[in-house]
Amino acid sequence: MKLATLDNGRPDGQLVVLSADARLCAPHPAWPTLQQALEAWTEAEPALRALAAQLSTTGTAPSAQAFDAARALAPLPRAWQWLDGSAFQSHGDLMSTVFHMDKLPYDERPLMYQGLSDRFLSGTADVPLPSEADGIDFEGEFGVITDAVPMGCTREQAAGHIRLLVLINDWSLRRIAPVEMKTGFGWVQAKPACSVAPIAVTPDELGEAWRDSRFQMHLQVDWNGQRFGLAHAGAMAFGFDQLVAHAAYSRDLVPGTVIGSGTVSNETYREVGSSCIAERRAIEMLDEGAARTPYMAFGDTVRMQAKFEDGRDGPFGVVDQQVVKG
Amino acid sequence: MKLATLDNGRPDGQLVVLSADARLCAPHPAWPTLQQALEAWTEAEPALRALAAQLSTTGTAPSAQAFDAARALAPLPRAWQWLDGSAFQSHGDLMSTVFHMDKLPYDERPLMYQGLSDRFLSGTADVPLPSEADGIDFEGEFGVITDAVPMGCTREQAAGHIRLLVLINDWSLRRIAPVEMKTGFGWVQAKPACSVAPIAVTPDELGEAWRDSRFQMHLQVDWNGQRFGLAHAGAMAFGFDQLVAHAAYSRDLVPGTVIGSGTVSNETYREVGSSCIAERRAIEMLDEGAARTPYMAFGDTVRMQAKFEDGRDGPFGVVDQQVVKG
What we know:
Two copies of one chain form a homodimer.
Chain A: E1 2-6, E2 14-18, E3 24-26, H1 34-39, H2 41-58, E4 65-66, E5 82-85, H3 89-98, E6 112-115, E7 121-122, E8 127-129, E9 136-137, E10 140-146, H4 155-160, E11 162-169, E12 172-173, H5 177-181, E13 195-196, E14 200-201, E15 210-211, E16 214-215, E17 218-223, E18 226-232, H6 240-247, E19 258-260, H7 269-272, H8 277-288, E20 301-307, E21 319-325
Parallel strand pairs in A: 5-19, 7-13, 8-21
Antiparallel strand pairs in A: 1-2, 1-14, 2-3, 3-4, 5-6, 9-12, 10-11, 10-19, 11-13, 15-16, 17-18, 17-20, 20-21
Helix pairs in contact in A: 3-8
């Protein structure tokens, strides 16, 4: 099942169910917002699936309309909680290089921070930021949205609470990041609001591409129209089941908790490229002695698109946006 | 003006205005929740103040009742954002001792992390946590609640967006804290939900005790009925105006953003005591070579009460709660 949220002038928007081909959408009268659906997912899911089936089979439903991704907000336009992992070791190792820090541990427990969740920008929104001097960077990653997860749940139980899958652009200010990181307190200024591609999908939509609680897909990233990366997201050191269980150790997770993978990255980064600029700069530091690729300038664009292993487009729609002076 | 939120079975509760003596309370029909009031504070504040004046002068108002702190939730039972500083250098220096880490910088920019804000526990709620072995600790601190703060605002502008003042118990799991801190990602597992004393007040309620964007008050902390600390909160290295402006560097702050001071602490900690157990353990490490005070056991209680400099009780009501097996 594919879900999106249309802009209706309200902070949580209007939840719509999409047809299988994502050309049509329709609201469900009982579930006006995705947050409300997630708060009662066992009731909401069958009702939403029935509407999706009707829309896909008959091509119509009450208030059905063509789905226009340009009118979509983030699937969950705001959430009570955003916990972002850093589950790709090749990314972590490169970031330690670019930030001149010791390598982070990847053998015992996931890395995770709590980030800004009072808004998620749409995949096409302009992104207002204060200064090019801060080292503006995109970060392509995948994420999951849970329903209510009890404190202390196991990894296996956690897997069952992963209800929706999303594609995220986690904006970062790289010149502030190491300053905040060295305090041990994590990031505040270095992590403004994330953007999210327009369509959230249930795990079954990915078929075999959702396996081991990981997205077995490539993430295609273009910067100013030039291919920048095509890394595979299956390389996570910890699966999303482990990330959810880690997050729930000492807290219940509220419905609509969003948990991210961290920047998609492969050890073969010299061949497949990267999902953020900082990684390329780290590779340049390793290979050429100094970073030469600049961070983003105002007006720069970034485009992200998930790709199945056979090259078909993933179901999330695209992130395609520019950064502007805020 | 004094505000509180009563439990009405809904997540945001029922906002009530208190009489000046905090004996009576009444709802305002136009402002059912504190979040809604904060989203339109310039409209809401005069209406709520008019009700408070009526209640204080006449002793009655529609739906007025005796204010029962035991029925109160946290003033803001959930918020879109909780950003906690660590603005007391004597606390930071002692924590570096207890965590065996280098001292943190206090000379340039505030320390701040983003924490769990999907719920704030009431000041009297039992606090369920997974294990005594995690090093369960209270942390007494003060906090402010803002209305909408634009990105990039100055310290002076930020001061004007501080709308309400609160007393917070920021629960911490001390054996996890340094593990998470050493990654640079900040705390997730080490920082479960905070508790908040029942009454939020506008800054004018403190009179001269709100000065330099700091609480010029003592925080009295008792652990299992024994006095533990009576530190003065005026010793912040950065005022709340600076904390708010720091938080708003690369993000707008949504109405209802809660910003904390970090544990109240004084350099005279050997005389005035501490607002958390970890500090006392650090002092023992410095003075006696090893920590001997244990962290909390299930069933332990902590009580926190703000005190004016002349010894009068502060207006926030009390935190008085026990920690239980979750």
